[in-house]
Amino acid sequence: MKKILIAGDSFAANWRIKYNGAGWVNLLENDYVINNLAQAGVSEYKIMKQLESQNFDDYDHIIVSHTSAYSIPISEHPIHKDDLLHKNCDLIFSDVQEHTDNPIMKIAFEFYSHIFEPDYFVYTNSLICNEIKKMSDKMIHITFFDSFYDNDVFKYENIFLNNKGNMNHMNSKGNEIIYNEVKKIIL
Fold it and tell me: Which residues have CB under 8 Å from 146's CB, separation 6+?
């Protein structure tokens, strides 16, 4: 049976550690031996760190789910550090905006609102993504944040937007579509 390494963000994380159900990554477990390092809410920087921790010779394929360029790496999340699924997450504006009652998140909100330079983060994200791409020719690159990535990354934002749900951000139909798309790429 083929061995697959999965790295990335919440779209590829194993949500079963917190919720009942099956995301596309769990469906792959029926066909392959999976080592899933993906973590909810992480930045492209932490995705690169996930990959750096592995010996790629141990795998037949490596699936990398690239994330939003607007994620800011942090060492410990002030809200989610004890959450099973989000314990390693970084800052992202939508989450920061929801938690402005926390003093640290309020500071982060002020940063995003008044200081944040989107072009810098897009540029930095692109540099990290390009470094990831150089790591191995076994990699399959996917994203649910289409506008941040070029055409050598499989883009699934529309599938997500049309199939929102509570497992890897998608309903069972969306997860089934991604599972089938990934299987086609692997073959």
Answer: 155, 156, 157, 158
Q: Which of 144, 140, 142, 149 is nearest to 169 (CA)?
A: 144
DSSP conformational letter for 52: H
Contacts with 8 (C-beta within 8 Å, 6 or more apart), sequence order: 38, 42, 47, 50, 63, 64, 65, 66, 67, 142
Record the pTM.
0.96
CA distances from 89 to 21, 74, 108, 130, 133 (A): 21, 8, 14, 22, 22
Residue type, 88: N
- 163 φ/ψ angles, rounded to the nearest 5 degrees: -145, 45
Encode pLDDT of 154-186 as tens digits. 999 999 999 999 999 999 999 999 999 999 999
Class of 3-91+118-186 in CATH = alpha beta
Q: In whole angstroms, what is the distance from residue 177 CA to residue 144 CA?
A: 13
CB 136 within 8 A of CB 56: yes
Q: Which residues pair with 65 in a beta bridge?
A: 8, 142
Domain boundaries, the chain: 3-91+118-186
